[in-house]
Amino acid sequence: MAPQRATLLDVARRAGVSRTTASFVMSGRTDMRISAQAQERVRHAARELDYRPNLMARSLRTRLTRTIGLVSDTIATEPFAGELIRGSLATALQREHLLFIGETEGDASVEKRLVEDMLDRGVGGFLYASMYTRETRLPPVLRGLPLVLLNCLTQNRKVPAVLPDERAAGRTAARTLLAAGHRDRIWLVGESPAGVYAGRERRLGIEEILSRAQLTLAGTVDCLWWPEPSYAAVRECLLARARPSAVICLNDRVAMGANQALTEAGLAVPRDVSLLSFDDSDLASWLRPQLTSIAIPHFDLGRRAVELLLSDQPAQGVHRVAMPLRERASVGPPAAATR
Amino acid sequence: MAPQRATLLDVARRAGVSRTTASFVMSGRTDMRISAQAQERVRHAARELDYRPNLMARSLRTRLTRTIGLVSDTIATEPFAGELIRGSLATALQREHLLFIGETEGDASVEKRLVEDMLDRGVGGFLYASMYTRETRLPPVLRGLPLVLLNCLTQNRKVPAVLPDERAAGRTAARTLLAAGHRDRIWLVGESPAGVYAGRERRLGIEEILSRAQLTLAGTVDCLWWPEPSYAAVRECLLARARPSAVICLNDRVAMGANQALTEAGLAVPRDVSLLSFDDSDLASWLRPQLTSIAIPHFDLGRRAVELLLSDQPAQGVHRVAMPLRERASVGPPAAATR
């Protein structure tokens, strides 16, 4: 236990970055180009040194009573959850609101109880968050209350909702491959997208751009969104002597499995096959080569939802947040031998 | 949006497991041997189908007022956080308590405010949780309140604390390698453990068992606990023609980087080098070969902390929860050529 309180400079030194970089990371700024690795090192160092940012202290000294409730289906199984909460929390505090978090695991009774308890203690507005982009039913207890849906939407689209722009991300994926020179043998790997909102939207975006260029996907490889099923499914296609020019994976875990199968088949990424993915989870920068991936902007989703909730104008409809392309080393021109 | 509520059988079918397996996963039972992959598939299917377990409904129908507050430093940057919360939540609900979660990012002002707000609304006991095992300072506002520390401990050890048994895990690691026949050239890869509680304890446990067998670590490879620094550090050692018989990595991310460096050097795991790790994060089962890893029992830590908080006997001292060995495919006998 450190006898003296660690400073931001201590954190920066331990993480091997500048004080400015550490400051940007700790204050959650995403407009600066800081690598995911450096960000993680700063946060890691901050935890180790028990660093306490003063970020939020100022807005709390006045003991304001305005409070937002974040009601979430599950934060238990998605590592992503943290950044959604982080974005919501930082923005709430900037606007001098406190944030209470309730986890419901999707249980209607828990939801009702949580919302009522939060109302009892003066919560004035709600974020209803899903950790997994999807269509949802609005709990009756929330109807008529100040509310923004975060990473989910209702079927009738009436309640204001903040979502990643999945279809535009699909378009970005296709454009990235076309720009690198790929014209054919483009595979899409991931589960049949009928049931998964993100998969369905991403595929629509991909097909929109390909069809404008009078191209089509060479095929889809149907598998669950995890490394092992993806490895097995891609391996099977490769054993059947099919050879892709580029592979779009519906998330980074799928890309991990595809990469394993390609490597095993003696195909190098990106020399022989380009690999492109979605999510930009930690995994994307951990693979070799590092994955080009289209990020889910979790922090920005949380920030935007709080901004909408606290805006003077009533927020309506669906607000889509851009999914930025993170270019790394897994996309290149088509293999020369195949042209 | 599904017009009809999904059943547990729907979840099981989609995940490709039996109804019984799905039931065990959804109710959070950890005493059954269910692969991490299958567990994830069930949770994934449950989210997709918007499945709502009735697990907690019963205990809430009576509108009990007993409430526990979980005050956490940060749930933002550790994917692990979820299972700690999940274990706490499930146990609280079994005991007919509600759980409120507050995130402080380690800010003392936020902590004070959160605890006071929770007290105002009838919270009767607290879990003070760190997502990263470490020594901590107890916030003054919590002193004298019913309290259990979760995954952290105070320097004087007076406040009851629930922690993973890191030193025993280190002993397990060393015993596993000795049992496989390794006697020398055992490397430890990870950051100099002085500042990191888990690293320090794990190393002490490893050295305890090696020294009983009159053996020592062949060396330690100093790097941050991430894939890229581990890859670079292990690669450098291998380029210097050092050849390990077995490599113990201080977490799975470190093992991922070590595995990349070994593969690049033409060394196969476990044929040429055995690889053993800690954490048993998702990553452990995603790598090829799948990693043998010693698990942090996050769910059980949360459960144990709630049990202690609600027990009739005042809980005192440090309660250590066993870290189970997950045997997979990365440990084998020493390479024949080197014996």
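Chain B has three domains: 8-48, 62-159, 166-296+326-338.
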